[in-house]
Amino acid sequence: MLAEAEDDWLYDSGFDMSYAWKFFHKTVDIAAGRRPALSLDSVLHEQDSVFTPSALFLYFTSNHDENSWNKADYGTMPGASHAPFAVLSQTMKQSVPLIYSGQEEPVLDSISFFYKDTIDFKTLKRANFYKTLLNLRTNNPALAANASFKKLATTGDTALYAFEREKNGNKVLVILNLSKKAQQLSWKNQPSEKEWNNVFAGNKEPVDKGFGIEPWGYAVYELRK
After folding, report:
1. What's the Cα-to-Cα distance from 13 to each of 9, 10, 17, 59, 121, rounded to whole Å?
2. Same domain, 18 and 107
3. pLDDT at 116 over 90
4. How many CB atoms lie under 10 A from the CB of residue 13?
């Protein structure tokens, strides 16, 4: 059962999941350049400290309220900036991801809150992007809600956000550039493997030496047993 609020007592009252509102608002600030990427850690620390370990959170880049009133995601995470935050919503720990109506098109307008607003699907520009992420969630146990989460430090954590998920030897590595400037990835804490399968490119790549990553870029890797 899903609660639209985000309070720890909800889980004691029978709810299984709540909206990750604080995390979402932090991502909006990061997309606007008001906060660094590493500010996400404070939200995750609060979740770990306050909420039950079995708590689930609905992660999103847009929903009915935010789209109608605040122009999410086309206004809050416009253009290329949408992609890394969408990856984040699909790969974060204790997560259930939300894809709001029209995001796969994408619909670059608010959908009416109080009357029927028809969505005209034509290009489906984001369809393969979301399909790849959803297939990864379905097929790799490392993205299960109870899979482990390990933040990986880089030399550029004001812009880069990297982490590794793992369950029963299955692994997912996520590297995001949450900034409008190109970044050079260099590790302080290495991932558990040197070579990984690139989920979007479909090939095996070394990651231990780092690499350049474009503005609002993302790289998602996996290993499966």
Report:
1. 6, 5, 11, 21, 40
2. yes
3. no
4. 9
pLDDT higher than threshold 90 for residue 6: yes
25-40: pLDDT as tens digits? 999 999 999 999 999 9
Contact 152/172 with Cβ under 8 angstroms? no
Beta partners for residue 59, in sequence order: 97
**C-alpha to C-alpha distance for 190 and 36, rounded to whole angstroms:** 21
Rounded to 10°, the helix 21-31/82-91 angle is 150
Task: Name the residue range of residue 96's domain.
Answer: 2-141
> What's the pLDDT at 115?
84
CATH number at residue 134: 3.20.20.80
pLDDT at 219: 98
| Paired tokens of 104 | 């796969």
Q: In the chain, how many domains are there?
A: 2
Q: Does residue 99 share a domain with residue 154?
A: no
Same domain, 32 and 130: yes
111 phi, psi to nearest 5 deg? -95, 130
Q: Select from 141, 170, 192 the last residue of a domain.
A: 141
Q: Which two tokens stand for residue 193?
A: 């493997």
In one-letter notation, the amino acid at residue 48 is D
Contact 164, 171 (CB under 8 A): yes
Task: Say if residue 76 is in the same domain as residue 160.
Answer: no
pLDDT computed for residue 224 by the predictor: 96
